[in-house]
Amino acid sequence: MTEALGFVNAGAALGIGLLVGLERERRKGEEGRRDVAGLRTFAVTSMLGYVTLWTGGPLLLGFVALALGALVTIAYWRSLDQDPGITSEVALFTVLVLGALCVSAPALAIAIGVVMAGLLANREMLHQFARIQLTAAELRDGLLLLIAALVLLPLAPDRYLGPYNAINLRTICALTVMLMSVGALGHVAVRTFGTRYGYVLGAIASGFASATMTVATMGHIAAKEPLDVKLLSAAAMLANLATLAQMALILGAVEPALLHRMGWSLLCGLLAVLFYASVLMFPRPRAHAQDGIKHGGAFSLKLALMVVVAMTVITVVSSAMLDEFGQAGVVATAIFSGLVDAHASTASIASLAKGGLLPFDGIAVPVLMALTSNSLSKCVVAWVSGGRQFAGFVIPGQLLMTLAMWGGLWLSSL
């Protein structure tokens, strides 16, 4: 059994060397270049790493790596005039390590080898992306997002501070990162699919993170791209699809009977959103179509901070209402908390109903009050972020959706 495993691991090492070596072999001779290693060299180096670690351990592997480094250095200096790059040399060292890794973790080594071969094979595409397609502003915003998500967010303390213990620095950082991510997702969608469908797809996807933040992002873009204001307004409205879907999932997960009780309201809201967004999107005048996409930054940090500060203030007010009125103020609390997030209010109300503190027939009004206040919040955000023209398209849509959901409640009571 052990011998069979040894052959499998050795085969994995050989496969990695052949895969990477095959890609490097195709590069040899292109544009008069001559790489230091080809198919056979990479295959032998990978097997050398496997056999060295298997027989002599890490110490012997270190000596082999030093010897290989000396040979590669000599070959590099000899071919410096023809090929000043060091990609093949670095790949050769990587293959040696991956071959050694096949002794203990062949699956991981194979995965890394495949990824490396893919990176080597797509050299031209990656170079074009880095030099031509990716702008300096996008690179700056990408680095800023990574710093916020991977450095600042983990360091933020996860405890409640301030009045009513309503302020959580980890939550504030998470909301900021979320809004930045929403903007970046929409930007990538537009760069990939164009303005007509990119904004819509990005808004629906980012709506599952935060529909209110999506409205703010679409409004910020509309302020810079006024010719696309109708399309961006439709995208902002379609972000409500994520809100309705999440509300349905929450109600169904807590208690399926609650979803049945709210079914007509959710369906009417869904149809209203689709109808209104379709009116805005189709037909789209050709005179307003923008074939060229302006490549600015991926998101607005200023907008993200403004929205997060506003939501933090609303959270403090909601906590004060809950502390003042308790469970007797379920509707009032739903209204204020809905200004921040309709999903949290829905989950809270559904939990009260399942626990017997609120009758099943009494959940519809608090849930719709939360959604109504959330629509009001989106209207305010639309006005602040996108101006009068953007708000002029978004506010009627939010009003139509809200009235449709209240109408659905009336239909279910007949």
UniProtKB/TrEMBL annotation:
Protein name in the entry: MgtC/SapB family protein
Alphabetical list of InterPro entries matching this protein: DUF4010 (IPR025105), MgtC_SapB_SrpB_YhiD_N (IPR049177)
A Pfam family per the record: MgtC
Segments crossing the lipid bilayer: 6-24, 36-53, 90-119, 139-157, 169-190, 196-219, 231-251, 263-282, 303-322, 328-350, 362-384, 390-411
Organism, scientific name: Pseudomonas synxantha
Domain MgtC/SapB/SrpB/YhiD N-terminal: residue ranges: 12-128
Keywords of the record: Membrane, Transmembrane, Transmembrane helix
Record-annotated DUF4010 domain positions: 177-386
